[in-house]
Amino acid sequence: MKVFLCLFIVVLLGQRTFAQQTISGTVQVDKTQHPVPFASVNILSDGKIIAFKPTDKDGRFTITLTKEYASLYLQINHLTYEKFELKLGTQTSNLRIALVPKTNLLQDVIVKSKPKVSRSNDTISYDVGSFAKEEDRNIGDVIKRLPGMEVTESGLIKYQDKTVSKLYIDGDDLLENRYGVGTRTIPHKMVKDIQVLDNHEHYKVLKNKRFTDDVAINLVIKEEAKLKLTGQAKIGVGTPNLYDPELNSILFNKKVKMLNVLSGNNTGHDLSGDIIGANQSSLLAKFGSSTINNLLATSTTGSPNIPKNNYYFNNTGSLNTNNLYNLKNLWQLKSNLQVLYDNDRQNNASNTQYLLDDGDVYFNEQNHMKTARWLGAARLSASTNTEKKYASNTLSFEYEKKDITALLANSSGQIEQFQKHHIKGFSNLFSYIPQLKNNDIIAINWSLNYGTKPQTLQIYPGVFPEILNDSIPYKSSRQQIEVPSFFTEISTGYRFNKGRIKQYYQIGFNTDRQHFTSLLTIVDNEQRVRTLGDNTRNNLYWSRSQAFITPQYSWKTNRFETQLEIPITYLFTHYEDVSHQLATSKNSMLINPNLKARWQISQEDYLQFNYQFAQDVGNIEDIYRGAVLRNYRMLSQNNAALNESKKHTFNLNYTLARTLKVLFANAGISYTRSLSNTMLSSVIKNNITENILVNMDNLQDRWSSQIGFDKYIFPLASTLKLKGSISYFKYNQLLNNALVPTRSTSYLFQPSIEAKVFKSYNISYSGLFNWNRSKQQGLDNAIQNKTTTMMHNIGFPASPFKNGFMRLNLRNLATFQTNMKNASYTFIDFFTRYKINKWKMDIELEMNNLANIKNYRTYLMTANMISQNEFELRGRTILLRTVFNL
After folding, report:
1. Which of 185, 198, 272, 653 is the most exposed place for a label (fewest CB within 10 A)?
2. What's residue 7's pLDDT?
3. Could you please report the per-residue DSSP string of 260-289?
4. Contact 478, 628 (CB under 8 A)
5. Is 0.70 surpassed by the pTM of this model?
6. pLDDT value at position 90?
């Protein structure tokens, strides 16, 4: 018994002795013996930390253990020293530990703490990996959520409310301003950084030699993505009878860049923007300096304020090829070819009320339209862009053919319409800008374009019999228009780069030739085609020549930069139409100064001012005398001299950025006053609108203000975006021979945010609040219209399991209009994706409009008109898509 008692006491004392075991020591720098404060001292057993404590200011530590362990390890960590590990034996006190400094300290810190946004002078770089989310597939998805960036529905990109003029890929302008195909095709995983080039100069020879406020984007491609040709093959099928295939190939290396896409769909995805471009005046919209394009139309109803894929019933096929080659001699060859065929239909209805002093006028109509369209564009270019020289020649061909069949029903019965237009043309642009030995610069530019654009509109039965056929009903009306156009300009300039004030002088000459012919005929009930006399035909010859000189002066200090441009133009215009006894020549001298200034308040903030005075002499569309049947209820003609206008424009903008805080903000105000000598007179009756341009002073005032605020919220890993604007428009209208002063005010507010709720579950919100107020003051009464539009878009993106993503989207749109029934719609969409990495394949399920909304009503309000429009929607759609990463 005594033996057991003694053993028990020995064990107990042993435990008490171990409980008092202490591990202590001093941590020093190897070689210098300096103490290391705030080092993390950990005691481990079986790989687990059982005790820890930091060193004090003298590098000492003391740790007491309260339990017995089979083996103990000492581990010491410090940010600036190599990790130290030691297995403890019997000696555990008064340890002396020497730490070795890290040799790769700077490199490790940079890699681990790379900022999400960085700035170098006027270049801001966004780290794509920091902003990309699981749901993103292409680089456009990432750009949309970047602080300071905005992407419109048409694909136009803006930075701090300024339009992006170019999208470079590793410094090369492969896509020009048709960059929409790139943002929706290039995978974001190929891109390392998105660089925003503020105050960008495209011509390297002119860099820092002239004022510029352009904005461009450069996509920095990852090195591993440059090594091989990549691409995707997509196959999508769904209900009702949906298809969505696409095949693309991508190669972005130093010598060759290519982006080729073959696609088609009937899911409502509009591909025409890939051809027309996001922010250009293409040949489809501009042949010559003063043009007539599509004067004729089958419908007076616009488009609804919802995404186009909800109401666009299409069958589309598209080929888009873009290839660029960098040669050894610093020259670059590039080809861009786009072809699109589209066959779509649209059903809509409208009820329009014109509020007039002599009584209200109502139009009610239902439209059923089918459109077949071909679009084509081809561009070939050769260029060199170095610090010593810029040279380029670009040859372009563009083509559009559209056939529209429309069945319209109104209070008078049914109307069949057939509209055709066929636009084709070419252009050539040559530029040569070398730097001379004395560092001065010369510039030589020559442009040439030619196009034809025949248009026809045929309507059954014939319209306006009381005007066109002595009140006798007839079978059909046929309007034909043709406007071949030729334009060329040549200019040369010399830039002095010496002195504090930089000077540039340009002289040039251009000429514009157009021939506007139109003929309105009717087919009577006996099938006879009849012309209606000179008052319904035009044979107008138009020519305009300009000689101009443009002095330009710029001055720059450390913080202030300004540029004054004073174009002086001598203009000779001649037009004649023998059938209307019209023959007029006009000489004009125009001086249109433009002043720009920018004050760099701090490294990232600047204030910019712009004033422009613009005098303009009208174009051929202002002076044709014969009546033109624009649509089934509108006749248009002119009875005025050539329009002359003067316009003053003021802009003041403040741009703020805090790159380290990832904060971007901008605010601006603008004011425009214009005065012209002509006004459009509209005579509106129950079945016809007659528009005539008449001589009358026409004064218009417009001012607006806008503000934008974007901030990246680090705890939420999200961007908060706020945007607001106010605009005011004051003008006069000539309605039914009464001059009507009109005032219009609009308020707009757009918030958006996405926040992390729990691990891989997020919530996003974007909204739109638009208040429009329009007031018309007539002779006998005053009319005031109010419209409020609200949109709420709530999304629930989530990644509930590995390689899986899903998103539920709820979108509510509501419109409130004076004296009209309120409209409210809630759309529900769902999307999910699962990645099979082994097969390099994604499977996607996309379900849109789950609530199966098939009709959508909108209101369009102006000071004198209220229009209620109803559109047919696609209804519920389900699409299963397989994506193969090649």
Report:
1. 272
2. 38
3. EEEEEESSS---THHHH-SS---TTT-SSS
4. no
5. yes
6. 77
